[in-house]
Design goal:
The chain starts with 6 loop residues before the first strand and ends with a helix. The model is unreliable at about 160-170 and about 300-315 (pLDDT under 50). The chain has helices at about 15-25, 35-40, 55-65, 80-85, 95-100, 105-115, 125-130, 225-245, 275-280, 285-295, 320, 345-350, 400-415; strands at about 5-10, 30, 45, 70, 90, 120-125, 135-140, 150, 170-175, 180-190, 195-205, 215-220, 245-255, 260-265, 330-335, 340, 370-375, 380, 385-395. The relative contact order is 0.14. It is globular, with a radius of gyration of 21 Å. With about 425 residues, the protein is of the alpha+beta class. It contains 13 helices and 19 strands. Helix 4 (about 80-85) packs antiparallel against helix 5.
């Protein structure tokens, strides 16, 4: 990895990406909203108050003076800020012009339509109200499924005269489609687009006290038939080539009749990736850095507004990776069921015999599971509905992993702290 000095990771939550960087041997520091206890045990961590996020990152960059940096969710919604920060320090990730296009749901629809690939229709709220389908009302600047609701549940004057001009209006509608929610994770480099893995998304799960549509975890990797793996690869190639994506990025989809329907592009490090890393024993961070460094020195990754042709498909490493493991890993974000005060960090480990989060290995050795991550600092007030803790489990099947997450979550919620 051609980097020097501490590598800075910024975002709403930096822990998952930071642990991946540390496992790869990278000297790491972070800026996020939480600066959780376990993160501070392994790297220098700065906390930014919610009232100053994200634009307060300007001042923090002046203090930290990183030589190299990357962002996590949901900073992809601030392309101008990304470019401003990239002018101060070398960015490992997608620049602003890529984000503006890759986060435009109408442009994604146009791209998939021209490529004759399945897509979920998007339109303006006014147009959706006049159609007979069920629609989701979504913000352009979305993150983790927050502020999403069914259009027919909204009765508000704010829907009047809303257009899809996102510079003036914050909302659009996307057709709702019944089916499992999944995330496909890709690595885009100069020569190919690799499908790293596909995970089942946990969304709005009541047992984890998540709000409707809120992301609350992932389980994977999903075993895929060759034909379905090829469909994901065609999607990845089409979108990566059209938008000039580089490094690791994610694509949220709904599966129906063995066909993935794209929901949105997450053009940055994915929250689902750590379950793939753990299950398949991968060092993805090094590959991510190398791919982005290659792209920043190549004319191959330039804005291309008119191209919809696919480059030659590259063989996916996904099938061969799956052959190396019989394990899958589950991750659940537990949201506070009531206002709580965080106990001593050791209290989490005593509960349910949780393990300390390892950063020096990616192994799925069952003796390292279950473990807790994103551990709040002692005395921290966790308001109802805020993320409280992340659980990680391993199992032989997806179903068993989900059951273990649910069982451990129930025990944790029974604690009096």
């Amino acid at each position: 990895m051609p980097t020097c000095g501490p590598f800075l990771i910024v975002g709403a939550s930096a822990r998952a990406a930071a642990f991946s960087a540390i496992r790869s041997g990278m000297q790491t520091q972070t800026v996020d909203l939480f600066s959780d206890w376990d993160l501070k045990q392994h790297c220098r961590s700065f906390q930014i108050p919610p009232s100053e996020y994200p634009y307060g990152l300007h001042d923090l960059f002046c203090r930290v003076k990183p030589t190299t940096w990357m962002y996590t969710g949901a900073l992809e919604n601030y392309p101008t800020l990304i470019d401003q920060l990239a002018s101060k320090s070398r960015l490992i990730g997608n620049p602003g012009y890529v984000l503006r296009r890759a986060r435009d749901p109408f442009l994604i629809q146009d791209t998939l339509q021209k490529a004759a690939l399945p897509y979920l229709e998007v339109t303006t709220p006014n147009n959706a109200q006049n159609q007979g389908h069920q629609w989701l009302l979504k913000p352009f600047q979305s993150g983790g499924g927050s502020h999403i609701q069914f259009l027919d549940e909204v009765v508000s004057p704010r829907l009047n005269n809303i257009s899809h001009n996102k510079a003036r209006y914050p909302l659009f509608c996307q057709k709702w489609f019944s089916g499992p929610s999944v995330t496909a994770i890709y690595l885009s480099s100069l020569n190919q687009v690799q499908l790293i893995g596909v995970t089942k998304q946990l969304v709005g799960e009541r047992i984890f006290h998540a709000r409707p549509f809120s992301y609350c975890g992932s389980i994977g990797p999903l075993p895929l038939e060759a034909s379905l793996s090829d469909k994901f690869l065609v999607l990845g190639n089409t979108l990566s080539h059209t938008f000039g994506l580089r490094g690791i990025w994610g694509l949220d989809c709904v599966l129906s009749d063995s066909t993935p329907y794209a929901i949105e592009i997450n053009p940055r490090w994915s929250a689902s990736l750590e379950v793939i890393e753990r299950a398949l024993n991968l060092d993805v961070f090094t590959q991510h850095v190398n791919a982005c460094e290659q792209a920043s020195h190549s004319v191959a990754f330039v804005q291309n507004e008119n191209s919809h042709a696919n480059p030659p498909l590259q063989p996916s490493s996904y099938a061969s990776n799956l052959m190396r493991t019989t394990a899958c890993v589950g991750k659940a974000i537990l949201y506070a069921d009531r206002d709580r005060v965080a106990p001593e960090p050791s209290a989490w480990f005593r509960t349910c015999d949780l393990k300390y989060p390892a950063t020096k290995t990616t192994t799925t050795n069952y003796s390292t599971f279950p473990y807790a991550a994103d551990i709040p600092n002692k005395g921290e007030l966790i308001r109802q509905g805020q993320p409280m803790l992340t659980l990680m489990v391993a199992a032989n099947t997806l179903k068993l992993a989900e059951k273990r997450l649910q069982h451990t979550a129930r025990l944790l919620y029974e604690q009096t702290f």
